[in-house]
Design a protein that fits this description.
240 residues; alpha+beta; Alpha-Beta Plaits; 2 domains; four-stranded antiparallel sheet; two-stranded antiparallel ribbon; elongated
Length: 240
């Protein structure tokens, strides 16, 4: 994708060359054409770059430089980028919600505990499937933020099988108290590393769907883990 920006503060051709060189240091930038005569820059990107990131880079070069969008809306681009990045996980949740609600509808009644059991079964089976597609890749991604995987890489491999086991256990409705207790403990441990990464604004890949999709760590990951913690916690309370 290519976008055109206005750049103010350039006084000569040398300034334009410096701006171009600086823009090209951004990993996602694939092309930078800076024109001093029109005070514009055409920037090619492998994925959307926030305006604040471009501004930060140019301000670090010289505080007099200022960049603003021209032919496109920054808000629109951010929205498109957000949907493109999170579409896989949103579709997974949509399908899980649809299938589990159909199961309840087919029974002629809605039972919250039964719905949660089916939803969590689908969740863990689906997410473990994507992790299994590239176990090594998942383990490498997971160890960049998980508090246990950082110290023991093998936890990444084991985690995928724990999710598989939980999915099967929920599907079979095997020992609900034990199953929900394990899910609660595992997801609570998982969310700690996620919270640390998001709060520290670390730009790393989320490994929730394994290494198949390039999902950035964000509040979406927190919501995903928190939902599983809330559901398993609720189920535990109803069982004791």
């Amino acid at each position: 994708m290519k976008h055109t920006y206005n750049i103010s503060g350039m006084s000569c051709g040398s300034c334009a060359a410096k701006v171009k060189s600086t823009l090209l240091t951004i990993p996602e930038v694939t092309l930078a054409e800076v024109d001093k005569s029109t005070d514009t820059a055409v920037i090619g990107m492998s994925s959307h770059i926030a305006l604040s990131t471009l501004q930060e880079k140019l301000k670090a070069l010289d505080p007099k430089y200022d960049i603003s969008p021209t032919a496109h809306s920054e808000i629109v681009e951010q929205s498109k980028s957000w949907w493109t990045q999170y579409r896989p996980i949103l579709l997974v949740f949509f399908y899980l919600l649809l299938v589990t609600l159909i199961i309840q509808w087919s029974r002629g009644t809605f039972d919250l505990s039964s719905w949660m059991t089916h939803f969590m079964a689908g969740f863990f089976l689906t997410f473990s499937f994507f992790k299994m597609l590239d176990l090594s890749g998942f383990a490498n991604s997971y160890m960049t933020y998980d508090i246990i995987a950082k110290r023991w890489r093998g936890w990444g491999y084991l985690y995928a099988f724990i999710e598989l086991g939980l999915g099967i256990s929920y599907l079979m409705q095997w020992s609900p108290l034990i199953t929900n207790s394990i899910a609660f403990a595992v997801m609570t441990i998982s969310i700690i590393g996620v919270l640390q990464s998001v709060l520290n604004k670390r730009k790393i890949q989320c490994a929730c769907l394994g290494a198949v999709f390039d999902l950035p760590m964000s509040t979406v990951t927190i919501i995903e883990d928190a939902l599983m913690i809330a559901m398993s916690g609720y189920m535990i309370l109803t069982l004791i």
